[in-house]
Amino acid sequence: MAVEPRHITIERRVRYAILEPRERPATEIWFALHGYNQLAHRFLRYFQPIHTGARCIVAPEGLHRQYIDHESRRVGASWMTSEDRLTDIEDYVGYLDRLHAHILAEESRRRAGGSPPARIVGLGFSQGVHTLCRWLAFGRARIDRAVLWGSTVPPDLDLAEHVATLSDADLHLVAGDADEYYDRAAIEAHEARLRGAGVPFTSLTYPGGHRLHAGVLRRLSP
To answer: What's the whole-model pTM score?
Structure first.
């Protein structure tokens, strides 16, 4: 007899880390989506160089945690796997929408009447790039600038269907010139795909591998 997988919806708590702005109210809010096997609070350490002024930086944590290796008991998190992937995508898009609304509601309570809303930047690193792109495509949150760092728009995302959303997000592609996971050929193929779909973007490179680079972060946050 065939076994039929099913789903129910439950309440659960989710974790995120935040670098509160040094000045209030926040004029810029970053949502930084980590890569595979990273944790939110550790990922935020890379953003210390741009944690200045009225900039708030929020790092949501992927909903799936696992041991990176059993010997050290180190733990990492991920956004999804190939198993039950459509359900996981729907879950994390809803989670990011709710976190976005929560952070903006908190900031609006501190904002004087008539002051402009904070600019929203979404940054995805490695696996977080696919997460950010699907959030842009299927979510409700406003993102003023999207930074895709060290990976591509998901191959299964229909660019023709989502060209307007991606074009409105001031897309920035970032890659290291020695990235072991995202080489020159992959970068050029990604850029050609976006051009072919009519999606505008800006490309940035830096000397180094598959990691965040403080100098590029500063260029993205003048």
So the answer is: 0.95
